Amino acid sequence: MKKPKFLSLQVVENIPFVKAGDDLGAVIVDCIKRQNLSVLDGDVFVVAQKIVSRAENMIVPLNSITPTAEANELAEKTSRDPRLCQLILDHSKVLYCNGRAVITEDRLGIVSTSAGIDRSNSGSQEGETAILLPEDPNLSARRIRETVKKLLEVNIAVVISDSLGRPWRKGSVGMTIGLAGISALETGQKIDLSGRKINPEIALVDEIAAAASILMGQADEGYPVIVVRGVGFTPSEEVKIQDLLRPAAEDQVWE
């Protein structure tokens, strides 16, 4: 990986409110052309999970959910809507619940709170719809990447980001849940300033997602796509988010 000397992050402006069935890659390219934004080989597109989920119709009306006894029990324990608790149970395994936080592992192996399900930016001011994670964020990233490559004739990488919490720290930060064209981890032997050989393992895609989230925001900012330039990364055509996930046997948090 070539060490960058500077980075630039550019908002893709005027992204419309994405609806089910929209070709997200084409929507992004159209906005880039209208903005007259240059895109170069090696740029990284960071795309907010919410617009990916909306394009893929991962929106659930809460009035269509009938809570089970288990969901009602979880709702009483956590002061959550029982229907939301049912969605959490349907789409993940609950690892831990302390009466406030519900820590889950979803079908992709991603550990987060409430299976990544929430009601913000779902399209309902009343909060009567919930938005789920994409079925396969890696596939979502690949589709966006292929469309952008075809329409703009540039070789870019794509990161799908979501706001996640972290053990031992307050607050949320942008992290990667799907990716295409960029290695999940940067590894390899290096020499430190003292001349010692070291073997760092760097989650570069999470660093990129975190940087982009500064511009994206998490409320009504309306900037769900950020173009990051200047990152030296290892290209990969076979990458998947699971490459970034620590196996349970190695996870010290759950020991």
UniProtKB/TrEMBL annotation:
Task: Give the domain of life.
Answer: Bacteria
Q: Name one GO molecular function term.
A: metal ion binding
Q: What Gene3D superfamilies would the database entry show?
A: CofE-like, CofE-like domain
Keywords, comma-separated and alphabetical: GTP-binding, Ligase, Magnesium, Manganese, Metal-binding, Nucleotide-binding, Potassium
Coenzyme F420:L-glutamate ligase-like domain mapped to chain residues: 15-230
The signal peptide annotation in the UniProt record is none
InterPro entries cross-referenced by the UniProt entry: F420-0_g-glutamyl_ligase, F420-0_gamma-glut_ligase-dom
Keyword Chaperone on entry: no
What the entry lists under NCBIfam families is as follows: F420_cofE (TIGR01916)
Output this protein's name: Coenzyme F420-0:L-glutamate ligase
| Native species | Candidatus Buchananbacteria bacterium RIFCSPHIGHO2_01_FULL_39_14
